Amino acid sequence: MVDLDGSIALVTGASSGIGTACARSFARAGARLVLLARSGDRLRELQAELADDSGGACYVLPCDVRDRAAVTAAVASLPPSWSDIDVLVNNAGLSRGFDRFPDCSIEDWEEMIDTNLKGLLYVTRALVPGMVARDRGHIINIGSIAGHQTYPRGNVYCATKAAVRALSEGLKLDLLGTAVRVSSVDPGLVETNFSNVRFHGDRVQAAKTYAGMTPLTPEDIAEVVAFCASRPPHVNISEVLVIPTDQSSSTLVHRRLPDERA
């Protein structure tokens, strides 16, 4: 096990859900955090929380990963004492819409591609050369079961997550011979704001995603991410598929009636 105390971890999408849980997990392990997300206010709230709870040092980078120029400028703006990133957690991502392909919104497609795929590429490309030059570092991509198994109405979201899986594999191939590691942590159903975003704020529809079953929590995934990051340098957890006990595939979920859950 590697001591993460004093290491620097950059987490994208840190303002909510799995990203926030990862930030808390790394802070408890003594890591210094670079928090990146669009919401500067939420990042500053998290920064204050981590300082109060664990004394964790945080640097806030309000930035939209979809904006290549903004990503490049944000990474370049890091002070020297914060610029040598040891762990990158590519968590920023979303799903928009749940329609059959002929009925989908092209704007939804573009938002998913720009965030889930291009955003991940922009941040990774900005940080990987430094990792290679220092001959150390770890890239942990948050994928999805959707990258393993396509499901009806998942079309473009599944395509972006399949691309994340392929990029993780491609990175490992291209970084062979360096000490830079690449991991992919791929969750099934996790109860976050994910479904509310997918259904454009329809909370009633979003709640049905998790009805009658026990989903994963953001903390469940953050523990796996921290485990990957804390392995000895010669160990790379290449890929982890994490699903709830009540889920056996992307579409097969055991749901209990209300009286069964009592």
From TrEMBL:
UniProt KW Cell membrane keyword: no
Database matches in InterPro entries: NAD(P)-bd_dom_sf, SDR_fam
MF terms (GO), sorted A to Z: oxidoreductase activity, acting on the CH-OH group of donors, NAD or NADP as acceptor
Keyword Cell division in record: no
Keywords: Oxidoreductase
Pfam families attached to this UniProt entry: adh_short
Family: Belongs to the short-chain dehydrogenases/reductases (SDR) family.
Protein name: Short-chain dehydrogenase
Native species: Rubidibacter lacunae KORDI 51-2
